[in-house]
Amino acid sequence: MRMSLSRFLPRRRGLLLILLTASFCLSLFSLPAAAQVDTFQFDTPEQQERFRRLSNELRCPMCQNTNLTGSTGGVAEDLRREVHRMIMEGWTDEEIEQFMFERYGDFIFYRPRLRPETILLWFGPLIFLIIGGLVAWSVWRRASSDQDEVAELDEAEQARLRELLDKQS
Amino acid sequence: MQRWKFFIPAFAFLALAVLLWRGLYLDPQELPSMLIDKPMPAFELTTVEGEQVNNADLPDEMFLLNVWGSYCLPCLVEHPTFMRLAEEGEIPVVGVNYRDRQDLALNWLDDNGDPFAFSILDESGRFGIDLGVYGAPETYLVDGNGVIRYRHVSVLDETVWQEEFLPAIEELRAEGGS
Amino acid sequence: MIPELGSFSLILALCLSVILGTLPIIGAHRHNVLWMSLARPLAAGVFVFTAIALLILAYAFITDDFSVSFVANHSNTLLPTRYKLTAVWGGHEGSFLVWTWMLTAWTLTVGVFSKSMPLDFVSRVLGVLGLLIAAYILFMLGTSNPFDRIVPLPPADGADLNSALQDIGFIVHPPTLYMGYVGLSVVFAFAIAALLSGRLDAAWARWSRPWANVAWAILTIGIALGSWWAYYELGWGGWWAWDPVENPPLITWLFATALIHSLAVTEKRGVFKSWTVLLAILAFGGSLLGTFITRSGLLTSVHAFASDPTRGVFILGILGIFLGGSLLLYALRAPLMKSDVGFGLFSRELFLLANNVILVVAAASVFLGTLFPMVYQAITDDLISIGPPYFNAIFSPLMMLLVVLLGIGPLSRWKRTSGSYLLQQLGKVAIASVALGIVIPLLVLMEISIAATVTLILAVWIVLSMGKDMLNRSSNKASLIQGLRSFSLSYWGMQLAHFGIAVMLVGAGLTSYFASEKSVLLEQGQSTELGRYTFTLQDSYPIEGPNYVGSRTDLLVQRNGEEYTILHPERRVYVASGTPSTEMAIDSGFLRDLFITLGEQKESGAWSMTLYIKPFVRWIWLGAIFMALGGSIAAADKRYRRLRQRKSAEQQAASKGAAELQPAS
After folding, report:
1. Which ranges in chain A are annotated with CATH 1.10.8.640?
2. Hey, is the C-beta of A19 within 8 angstroms of any chain C C-beta?
3. Which CATH number is A35-113's, of 1.20.1250.20, 3.40.630.10, 3.40.50.300, 1.10.8.640?
4. Residue C192 has pLDDT above 90, yes or no
C-alpha cells in the first residue's frame, strides 16, 4: 500500500487524515492477493489468446507493478473491458496499442517500444555480450601464449600453494 | 595488463551511485498526463442530475475539471477548496463523477455541497479512460480553447492550489489564453 | 521498559562490532596477536546482543505491545500466534534486525569453523564482517529502530499484518533469502581479507569455496521459495514476474553462480584470481543493491517496504563505503596478482570463462532492465515500464547458450582439449538430444511445437552429456557401480546441480507454453470442462477464521468422467484492515497443477472463477531443490574437511609438544 499512501497523502495534515486516506486506499486498491476474475466471452480461441497476451503485456496505470490481468484496480477493470471490446470489434493489436498510448503513454507497455530512447535498452545485452566475448578472447589469447611455460609455472604455483598451506599460524 | 583497467569497476560503481542517488529523489508514480496540450476528449453523456451534456456545454473560459467519487475519501479532503473557489467565483469547476453510482453521487453532493458547474456522470469509467485518469481524485486545468494544460494527481488542497495551480493559471493568463 | 532494553542491547552490539571491525584488522596489520585473538570472542558478543534484541522484539509481538510502533503497524490481537512471530520480519525494521542477526550468526560460524586458517586471515575476515554489522546496526538505530515507541497515546489494537504475508511461504522466504545474501557477505569478507593481506592464492579460493557453495545453495532456495510463494499467493499463477524486487536476488544469484564456477578454476588452476575477487565483490554488491532497491522505494513493486529517502541515502552511504571502498582496494591490489598459468582452446578453463561471461552478461542485462526506467525518468522526465516481455526476450537466449556450454564444459579437460575429442565424445549425444527433443513432444502432443522442442532438446542434452561424463569417468573401474562410488562429493554436487538446471528448464519451458486457463461463471450445480477435467460447483458457504470472514466453495473435479478430488477455493476479507484476499485452491501433482482462483459472487448467486492447468510447474522448484542439494553436497566434500582435520591434528600435536616441553622448562 506504499504507493497509494504516498500518492494521496496531502502534505501538512493530521493523523485523522492519514487514517482516512489509508482506509480509502484499502477500499480502492486491494492487495494483489485478491485476484481478479473476469468472464469475458470470445468467438474464437485466437481472440481469447490475444486478450490474454494484451492484458498480460499492458500495465495497470495506477497499481504498484502489475499487469491488467493481475490487477484489481478500477482502471484495470475498465481497461480489460475496453481491450475485450476492441478485440471483439476487430481492432488490430497496433490499433489497440495506439489507443492505450494516446491515453497513458509509454508507461502502459510492459514491452518497451523500440525508439531512439530505448535502443540502448534493447541492444544493451548484445553489446554486453560482445564486450564479454572480446574480453574472454583477449584473456584466452594471452593465456594460450603462456602455454609453453605451463608445466614449470604450474609447479611453482603448486609449491607456493603447499608452502602457504603449511604456513599456519 | 595496464593498471588502469582495474579502476573500471570502481568508476562504473561511482557512476551507478550517482544515478541511484538521483533516483532517490524521483517519484516513479508521478505519471505525466498524455493529454497535456491536447483538446478535451469528446463526450456525450449526462450530468449527475440526468441532463444531456457534451463538449459544447463546457465553460468558454479557463476552468478546472475535477475527477471525484462518493467512495473517495481524499475527495472529501479537497472538497472545501473547491467549495471556496466556487463561492468566490475564482474559476469555474466541472466535475467528473468517476466510477460511481448516480444515487450515491447525488447524496454526496447533498451532504457536502456542490461546487461544480455540473458533474459529468461517468459510471462506466469510459470517459475516464479517454482522459487518461487512473484514480480519483485528479484535477485538470483546461484553457478557454478547451485544451488541457495541466494535471494534478491526488488531493488538491489550499497548498497545492497556491503553489501549483495559481502559478499555472497566471502563466496561461499572461499568454492571453482567455 | 523492555523494548528500551532491545535498543540498549543493539547499542551494545554496535559498540562491540565497532571494536570487532577495528582492533583485529589493525592487529593483523601490525602482527599483534592479542588484538587479533579478540576477533572470535567479539564476534560471539555481537551475536549474543543482537540475538537478545531479536528476542525482545519477538516478545513485544507475542505480548501485543502496541506501544511499539513496529508491532502496532504489523500485528493485531486477533493474529494467530505463529503469525505474530513471523510478523517480526513482516516489515522493514524487523526484517532488517533479522538480517543483521543472521550476519552476526554467520560471523560467529566463521569464527568457529576457521581453525584451519591463519589467525591474521581470520581476524581480517571477522573484522570486515564486524564493520558491516556496525554499519547495519547504525542504520537501524539511526533510521529504522524496530523498538521506536508511539508516544503519547499507543493504539488499543494493531493494524494487522498484510494478509498476503500471513502464510507459510512468507514465513520462510525472506529469512532464507537473507541467509543466502548474508552468506555472500562472508565470501566478500574472505575476498577483502585476501586483498588486505595480499594473499590471493589457491588456498584463499579453497577456504572460500565451501562458504560460497553453501551461500549459493541457500540463495537458490530463497529465490525458489519466493517464486513458489508468488505462485500460490498472488493469484494469477505466475511463478516469476520480473518485478524490480525479484530482480536483484536474481542478479545476485547470477553473480554468485559465476563466482562458484570461477572459484573452482582459481582453486584448481590458480587462474582468474582477480576476476574471482571481483565476482565476490559483485555478488555482495548485488545483495546490498537488493536491500537498497527494496527499502528505499526506488522502484515500484508489488512487495516494497515503506519508502523513505533518508533510509535510501543511508543505505546508499553503506553501499558507497563498502562497495566503493572494496572496488578501490581491488583496483590498487588486483594488479599485483598474476595469473601465470596458460590454457588452450576448448580447455575447461575456457568453458568456465565462457560460463562466467554469459552469467555476468545476463546479470548486467537484468540490471539494465531493472534500472532503465529510473534512468529514463531522470533524463526525459517521462515514465516507461519494462516488464516480462523484455526480460524473457533477453534472458532466454542467454540461458540457452549457457545450457549448450553446460553440456560440453564438464567433459572438457583442464589446460587443453582437442576439438576432435569433444566432437567424438559429444557428437552422438548431440544427435540423440535433437532426435529425442523432436520426437517426445510429437508423440505426446501429436503436434509440432517449436518451444517444447527447444526446451526438451536442451534438457535432454544436459542429462545425456552428464551420463556420458559419468560413463567416461567410471570406464577404468571394474563396474559402473564402483565407478559411481569413486566420484568425489564435489563431482556429485556439480552433476546434481546441473541436473537441477535440466529439471527447472523443463518446468519453466513447458509451463510457459502449455498452461491452459479458462474463466467461467458457475452457478451451483453447473459444470465446466478444461482439458481432461470437469469442474462442478457443488456448494458455497460462509466461513469465519480467527481474523477474517469469507466464503468457501466445494468444487468437484472429475478426470475422464471419474471423481478425482474436491477443491475449496476461498475468498476472504481480513477484519482489521478490510482487505479482500483470495485463497487459491491448488491440486499439485508431479506432471501438472490444477489451480483455481475464486472471483466474486454475482447477484445471481453464480461465482466467477478462473481455472488453470499448469503442466510441470512443480519442476521449477524441484530443479531449484536439486541445485541447492548439489551446492550443499559439494561444500561437504572431503577435501575441505580433510584439510581441516589434518591441520587440527597438527595443531594438537604442536600444542601437545608444547605441553610436554612445559614441565621441563
Report:
1. 35-113
2. no
3. 1.10.8.640
4. yes
